[in-house]
Automatic annotation (TrEMBL):
Protein name: Glucose-6-phosphate 1-dehydrogenase
InterPro entries, alphabetized: G6P_DH, G6P_DH_AS, G6P_DH_C, G6P_DH_NAD-bd, NAD(P)-bd_dom_sf
Every Glucose-6-phosphate dehydrogenase C-terminal domain range: 354-653
Role this protein plays: Catalyzes the rate-limiting step of the oxidative pentose-phosphate pathway, which represents a route for the dissimilation of carbohydrates besides glycolysis.
GO cellular component: chloroplast stroma
Reaction it catalyzes: D-glucose 6-phosphate + NADP(+) = 6-phospho-D-glucono-1,5-lactone + NADPH + H(+)
Family: Belongs to the glucose-6-phosphate dehydrogenase family.
Ranges where the record places region Disordered: 1-49
Keywords, alphabetical: Carbohydrate metabolism, Glucose metabolism, NADP, Oxidoreductase
Highest taxon in the source lineage: Eukaryota
Biased composition (Low complexity): 28-49
Catalytic activity, EC: 1.1.1.49
Protein's organism: Cannabis sativa
One of the Pfam families matching this protein, by short name: G6PD_C
Length: 660
């Protein structure tokens, strides 16, 4: 059979679209609250007779209480690309705002109605005053600075084709009946819609084998729209509009005929406009290729771009990953493939580069000369919970370390890229991955949680989970020391700098942190104030990715008073206190990037190869030798071996408790 590739995106346009030369139309925007939604998920009866829209609207009545707020607020209009910024400053001084239970409501008067609006195409962003509304009000001024975006990109994402006609985006969630689609993808799409980030003409299609009508899909989607938005102003109305754009097509993943039917339905919505199509493969990996093949042959766009978001796992090792890439490339060009690692979409991971490259104080210290070790720490406070079938086949090293943690490491350790262009950044990430020593069995501790009784309660072991095979040796914990043999990070003077990755499944709490421990101050005049434990004086930069995002620096400080007592204090940037704007879910950022054709936060195939090369020999050895994991009690800090590993490299694990 002739293999056709999906159409490559067309992003060459000759003129600035008219829509971008005007001040964008204003929408009523609600201010975000920094506290978590408290409203329970929407629940709709599964009934054809009841309109989901009406039910949603009814369920969105919120008791209001008055809260005054004054602020300027910037947002990106629905038709504008993210990297371009007709930043429109909206004065909230005239806003009427009321807050309900955990809900801040704002009626926003656009700035153009109150004072001079910023020119629509200005590349200089105006200063924005942000007034914190809860948890420690902060009044300050920040100036959002965005990078210039190539003109072609602007036009591509603004929803116009080359002839000035408006284009459409059709987003098909393949595997729409599944866990990820319900939990993350539909809520993220709705949040984007609510915030005005989806293009004017868009359609969302659910595709899966399950039989469902459009109405049933809408009920399913509305039941799971429990995202950060559901406490906000006009949420019900917006949801109604969003659900009106959601449709469903039932089909097999390996049926070109079923995808051709989908194509026909998509065309009905695209009504002759330039059609851009995004497929999100939210299905088990064994059917990725079938689905890509059928989407490619039967449902790719005829006149716009076609992109495919591929979920992890991208194989189990170097060979299977290479085979997957090869198979995908039979149907797709590399720049149509968006391999998602949702950790790259997390706010503080994205901020890593800003922190490093736009603050003079950090970059000069960012090497083995000043940094002793870097710890990437990740833990979850829940077990496999029905995902044992998937998890047992992959284990914690493939599920978290080889991708999420390694990606963070690469961003952390890379050299300064030539620019913020996706290829420049990904080039640097590949270089750092290729400079790393392959992981050695000796440098890894693996563990598995065992049953444990505490306070009269019996907690199960990993293998007590019915979806896990009895006698499984799959690690639920891993700690590894990794080394980068390049000029910045190679062993130097006293000892090596290294990266320790630790993942602990079923820890006492869930968290993800980057902890950077600096070297001791040479000849520290105050050494005697720290007693024999100089580690107590180590400066430590902590980037708390989640929960309760924060960046803090541990410094030595004099305790006020007449004596000379030192303690360690934190210079603390606590996001909830500093920023009133809530943090979007990683999937929102990544979906928007895929729609905009921004590949920076997606993984390129050579990055993936490099990542697998580091872990594959070790994983094979682990499995061939049937290494027995160290057992550790459910809910504990993990096996004692991790502490021996740390001690071998003279590392003190960062604090494991919550700290400010
Ligand atoms: N769930 C999560 O939190 C995360 C998931 N992922 C990845 O995202 C993808 C989707 O995950 P998730 O939603 O949990 O997966 P699900 O197991 O829920 O599968 C999604 C859908 O695929 C169809 N499906 C399931 N098994 C098969 C099969 N054997 N053959 C054909 N179709 C099947 C089902 O739809 P139907 O029967 O209607 O066709 C199902 O609703 C996976 O690649 C996963 O690894 C990544 C990170 C986190
Ligand atoms: O990819 C995965 O990530 C989640 C953790 O993601 P988070 O955003 O909730 O921290 C993990 O639970 C899952 O096992 C894994 O496949």
């Amino acid at each position: 059979m002739q293999i056709t590739k999906l159409r490559k995106e067309e992003n060459i346009l000759s003129e600035i679209p008219k829509g971008l030369t005007n001040t964008p139309s204003m929408q009523s925007k609600s201010l975000s609250s920094s506290f978590k939604p408290t409203k329970p998920p929407l629940s709709l009866s599964h009934s054809h007779s009841q309109s989901p829209m009406a039910a949603i609207a009814a369920s969105n009545a919120v008791v209001s209480k008055s809260t005054r707020l004054s602020s300027n607020y910037s947002f990106r209009p629905s038709s504008a690309p993210r990297n371009f910024h007709p930043w429109t400053s909206i004065s909230l001084a005239n806003s009427k705002i009321s807050s309900g239970s955990g809900c801040v409501r704002a009626q926003v008067t656009p700035l153009e109605q109150t004072s001079a609006a910023a020119p629509a195409q200005s590349v200089e962003a105006p200063a924005v005053n942000v007034f914190g509304t809860s948890r420690g009000a902060v009044s300050t001024t920040v100036s959002p600075v965005e990078n210039k975006t190539p003109l072609s990109k602007l036009k591509e994402t603004a929803g116009f084709d080359g002839s000035g006609n408006e284009s459409t985006v059709s987003i098909t969630v393949v595997g729409a009946s599944g866990d990820l689609a319900k939990k993350k993808i539909f809520p993220a799409l709705f949040a984007l819609f609510y915030e005005g980030f989806l293009p004017k003409h868009f359609t969302v299609y659910g595709y899966a084998r399950s039989k469902m009508t459009d109405a049933e899909l809408r009920i399913m989607v509305s039941k799971t729209l429990t995202c950060r938005i559901d406490q906000r102003e006009n949420c019900g109305e917006k949801m109604e509009q969003f659900l009106g754009r959601c449709f469903y097509h039932s089909g097999q993943y390996d049926s070109e005929k079923n995808f051709a039917e989908l194509d026909k339905k998509l065309k009905e919505h695209e009504v002759g406009r330039v059609s851009n199509r995004l497929f999100y493969l939210s299905i088990p990996p064994n059917i990725f290729i079938d689905a890509v093949k059928c989407a490619s042959l039967s449902a790719s766009s005829g006149n716009g771009w076609t992109r495919v978001i591929v979920e992890k796992p991208f194989g189990r090792d170097s060979e299977s990953s290479a085979a997957l890439t090869k198979a995908l490339k039979q149907y797709l060009e590399e720049d149509q493939i968006f391999r998602i690692d949702h950790y790259l979409g997390k706010e503080l991971v994205e901020n890593l580069s800003v922190l490093r490259f736009s603050n003079l104080i950090f970059e000069p210290l960012w090497s083995r000369q000043y940094i002793r070790n870097v710890q990437l720490i990740f833990s979850e406070d829940f077990g496999t919970e029905g995902r044992g079938g998937y998890f047992d086949n992959y284990g914690i090293i493939r599920d978290i370390m080889q991708n999420h943690l390694l990606q963070i490491l690469a961003l952390f350790a890379m050299e300064t890229p030539v620019s913020l262009d996706a290829e420049d950044i990904r080039n640097e990430k590949v270089k750092v991955l290729r400079s790393m020593r392959p992981v050695k069995l000796d440098d890894v501790v693996v563990g598995q949680y065992k049953s444990h009784t505490r306070g009269g309660i019996n907690y199960p072991s990993y293998t007590d989970d019915e979806t896990v095979p009895k006698g499984s040796l799959t690690p639920t914990f891993a700690a590894a020391a990794l080394f980068i043999d390049n000029a910045r990070w190679d062993g130097f003077l006293i000892d090596n700098s290294y990266f320790l990755l630790i993942f602990n499944f079923l820890f006492i709490f869930s968290r993800a942190e980057i902890r950077v421990q600096f070297r001791h101050v040479p000849g520290n005049l105050y050494n005697r104030n720290f007693g024999t434990d100089l580690d107590r004086a180590t400066n430590e930069l902590v980037i708390r990715v989640q929960p309760d995002e924060a960046i803090y620096l541990k410094i030595n400080n004099k305790v006020p008073g007449l004596g000379m007592k030192l303690d360690r204090s934190n210079l603390n940037l606590h996001y909830a206190a500093r920023y009133s704007k809530e943090i979007p879910d990683a999937y929102e950022r990544l979906l928007l990037d895929a729609i905009e054709g921004e590949r920076r936060l997606f993984i390129r195939s050579d990055e993936l190869d490099a990542a697998w090369s580091l872990f594959t020999p070790f994983l094979k050895e682990l499995e061939e030798k049937k290494i027995i994991p160290e057992y550790y009690p459910y809910g504990s800090r993990g096996p004692v071996g991790a502490h021996y590993l740390a001690a071998r490299y003279k590392v003190r694990w960062g604090d494991v408790g919550h700290e400010q």
